[in-house]
Amino acid sequence: MRTHTWLAGLVAGLLVGSLAPADAGAAKLPVIYNGLYGYAHVSSTASPPGANNWSCRPTAPHPRPVVLVHGTFADMSDSWQALSPLLYDHGYCVFALDYGSFNGSGSAGVYATGPVEDSATELASFIGRVLAATKARQVDIVGHSQGGMMPRYYVKFLGGASKVHTLVGLAPSNHGTTLNGLFTLLSLFPGANSLLDGCPACAAQEAGSPFITTLNAGGDTVPGVDYTVIESDKDEVVTPYQSAFLSGPRVTNITLQRQCALDQGEHLSMPYDHIADDDVLSALDPRHPVRPACTPVAPVIGG
User: Fold this and answer.
1) Structural domains in the chain, sorted by start
2) pLDDT tens per residue, range 169-189
3) Which of 23, 82, 113, 278 is most buried, judging by how many CB atoms fall within 10 Å of its CB?
4) Alpha carbon distance 152, 161 (integer Å)
5) Is the dihedral of CA 118, 119, 122, 128 positive or negative?
């Protein structure tokens, strides 16, 4: 989802006190847990802070590069202004992409609307570039919304199982969504589904769609890959929120409010939710889990 530049003044005021304290060490990037700041970014082609340094080489503590995958209507710039620098500051090689432009939508800064299968092919190509550049054998993936679900198609059908170690989904549409009944409502009116013609990815994410049925046939997971799903029970886009969760071996499902009742974040705030982002760090490095601080998180804004 995109916001407009008129938010700039409001954003500037909300930024006070929003910079996360840097860890000890040099060249740390500010981590801004503020969704209004993130979604107000208008340059969809700009890499988020800390991402897409093609000369980066993974270290022994973090041997796999992390690929960040945004959600429907979003882009790499507006989605990852917090998590990209956070991962960079923790010593990861971070990469992000824009994908899924459909009928020129990318020229307007609107991505992840094309057929999900095509987007998975784009992801496969991007990961091939990342592995070639970093000399790593595998990547970890962190995705939001469609970006947490779409990589499962790559893993399951496009040879990604051998190239992905860990897949972390932030509010992923793993089993589709009713969008609080929107799709059901559209189905009651002949011709109304034509409203979705400009967004094949939207139709694909309807609960029970042919795409979702194919994706989950034979089980949610693929052997050899670790899966973590982080979801909010306030999610108004992936509905019911439990449809985000996966079943199978090597799966961890996390409901944020069971960790912290002060977390009132929903779908849009997820990438800017400090509790969810700390859970990402733990999922990527289970040997050194992070204990998130239970402090308030607001809808959309995060914090």
Assistant:
1) 64-284 (3.40.50.1820)
2) 999 999 999 977 666 656 666
3) 82
4) 9
5) negative
